[in-house]
Amino acid sequence: xxxxxxxxxxAAAVNHSEDSxxxxxxxxxxxxxxxxxxILSGSAWLLLGSILGTIASFKLHIxxxxxxxxxxxxxxxxxxxxxxxxxxxxxxxxxxxxxxILSRVLKTTIPVRPWLFVGLLVWNFFLLIGGIxxxxxxxxxxxxxxxxxxxIVPIVLVILLAGEAALAMLHTRKTPHLYISAxxxxxxxxxxxxxxxxxxxxIFDGTVQAGMNWWYAHNALGLWFTPxxxxxxxxxxxxxxxxxxxxxxxxxxxxxxxxxFYNWNGFHHxxxxxxxxxxxxxSVAASVMMIIPVVTVAVNQHMTIIGSFEAVKxxxxxxxxxFAAMSYTFVSIQGSLQAIRSFNEVIHFTHYVIAHAxxxxxxxxxxxxxxxxxxxxxxxxxxxxxxxxxxKLHFWLSxxxxxxxxxxxxxxxIIQGLEMNNPDIPFMTVVxxxxxxxxxxxxxxxxxxxxxxVFAYNVFRLMHLRKVRPAPPVTWLDIQRQRALxxxxxxASLGKKVTSAFSNLNKSxxxxxxxxxxxxx
Amino acid sequence: xxxxxxxxxxxxxxxxxEIHAAAFREAKLPEEGAEPGPVWLYVVIFSTLCxxxxxxxxxxxxxxxxxxxxEEGAMIVSNEPEPPKPLFKVGEKxxxxxxxxxxxxxxxxxxxAYPPLVQSNWVTGNPDRLVSILLHGINGNLxxxxxxxxxxxxxxxxxxxxxxxxxxxxxxNSWGNSADTVQIAxxxxxxxxxxxxxxxxxxxxxxxxxxxxxxxxxx
Lengths: 521, 219
What we know:
heterodimer, A: mainly alpha, Cytochrome C Oxidase, Chain A, 76% helix, B: mainly alpha, Cytochrome Bc1 Complex, Chain D, domain 2, 2 domains, two-stranded antiparallel ribbon, 9 helices, 45% helix, elongated, disordered N terminus
C-alpha cells in the first residue's frame, strides 16, 4: 500500500509493511458487508436444507408419512435437499469465505462488491424459483443438476462474477508471493463456471448424458468444494496455531495432482453401466490416483499442526477445521478404495454411497465452513461470539451426528450390498433389514439439524442480539504469549509428580486440621 | 491515488486502538516452510502411479466395436453358441419370478387360497395335466390332500415351452418332491392338443386327465 493513501501520520507508521495485521484489519472492514451477506444467506439455506433432509430421511422408514401430497414426496424433497445444500449453503458460504481469504492473502480489497450483492440476490431468487420447480415435479432428473436450466444458468453466472472478482484480486494483489490458499481458490473459481456451462449445453443424450452427469456431479465436489475447503484449512491452521505450513513444495504437489486426477473421477459411478469399459477403467485408475494429492495434503497439514493439538481446546475454529481435515483424508481414501470394481460391486446402489457423499460434503466441507465462519465473523463484524458453550454444543451435535450417520449407514450399507448380491435372499428381506440403519440415520439427522439451529442462533445473536459486548475469548495465541513470559517449567518426571502430589495432599490435610482446631475453640 | 471504490463504508472510522486490538488477536500468517517431506510419502506416490498404470493396462477392455466387454475372454465365450441350461435351473428362475408370490418360497402355498406344491398329486402326477394347468390356469375350488383351496391361477401360455417345462420340472423335484423331468416336447404337444381360453376347473381336469400317467405309456 502506498503510504500517501493513508490519512494520518500515525497510520502511515503502522502501515509500513504490506502484510501488516493492521492492513488485514482494514481489509476485513471493507469486505465485511459482502462476506456477512453471503454467510447469512447461506446459513438460511442451511436451515431449510436440514429440514428437507430430515423429512427425506424419515420418509425412508415411514414411507406413508406426508405421502398424500405429491409436493412432499421423497422424489422431490430429497433432490431439493441436495440442491439447496449444495448451491445454497455450501456454495454461498463457500464464496463468501473464499473472497475473504483471497482479500487477506492477496492483500487487496474485494472488487465489485455492490454487483456481488446484486448477484447474491439474483442467486437467491433463482434458487428459490428452481426449488419450487423441483417441488412441482419439474426436475431435470439428473443428480446434482435437478434445477431447471433457466435457474441454474443465472446461478453459474453469479459464481462466474465472483470468479471475475477473484481474478481481479489476483491482478491487483499487493504481494508477489502466492499463498497456497490463493492457488486453490482461483482454481475453484475457474473450474466451477466451466462445469456449470458445459453441463448446461444441450448436446448430451443417453449414456453420454449419464457420463456428463457424473463428470459434473463429482467435479462439483472435487473441483469446487474440495479446493475451497483445502484453502480454508491451509489458511486457518497456520493462523490459529501460529506454525508455518510444513512445506510449500508439497502444497503445490498436492494442488496440481488434485487438478490433474480429479477431473477423471466421475465415471466410476457408472461401473456396470452401458458405457465403454476403458471409460470406466480410466476413471477407476484416476480415483485411485487421488491417493497422491490426499496423502500429500494430509502429511502437509498434519506436520503443520503436530505439536499444537492442544490448541483445539482453545480454538473452536481449529476444532472444526481439524475434524474436517481428518474427514477429508478419511473420505478420500475411502473413495479411492470403493472405486475399485470388486468393492463397488458390493456397495453400488446401497445406503453406503449416501453416507460417503455426506462424509465429503458434510464431515469435510461443511465442518470446514463452520470453522471458517467462527473465525471470520468476529473479525468482520467487530463483535465477539456470545457463548463459547453454544459453539461447543454445535460442534458436538454436528460431530456426533455425523459419526452416527457414517457408522450406521456404511455398516448397514455393506450388509445391504452383500445381501443384494446373494440370490437366495429375497429383495424385500434386504429392504426390511436396512430399516434399523435408516432409523439410526434419522436420529443423526435430528442431531445435525439441532446443531444447525444452534449455529444459526449463534450467528443471529452475534448479528442482532447485541446488548453487552462479550469479553474477547482467550485465544491459543494468548496462551502462547503467556507461556513465553513464564519461566520454562522443566518436564516433570514421574518421581517429581508423585512428590508434588504428596506435598499438595499434605498441605490440604494441614489446612483441614487447622480448620478442625478452629472449630474446637 | 487509485483507490478502489468503497461500498457502504466510505472510510474506516475505527480508532487506531480498535484496529490494533483487531490485529493483536491474531498472529501474522507465518511464511511457509520448504521441507522435502518424509520418504514414505514418495514411496506411496510411486506405488500409486504403478498401480494406476497396471490397472489401466489390465482392465482397459476392448477399444473396438464391443467396448462394453471387460475382458477378452468374455468376448470369445459370447461368440460361441451358449450351452443349453438344465431345465431345473431355467425353472428355478421362472419360479422365483412368477410363482413365489402365491405358492411361496417353500412351495407350501397359502391356507385356503393357494394350494401347496409339496406332496401334491397335481404336481407329481400326470405331467400332461400339470402342463395344461400351467398353460391355461385354474379357477374355483381345488382339493389337495383333503383340504380345499379357492384361488385363481392365471394362465401362463405366454411363457416359452422351455420355461413351462423348466418350472414343471423344478416344482416336481423340489422340497422333497421327486418325479420325472417334463420334456419340452411334452409342453409343445400339450399346447397343440388342448386349445381353450377359459381356465380349468377341478371337475374338468378330472374328466380329461388321469391322475397318473399309466405305467408303460409313452413318455
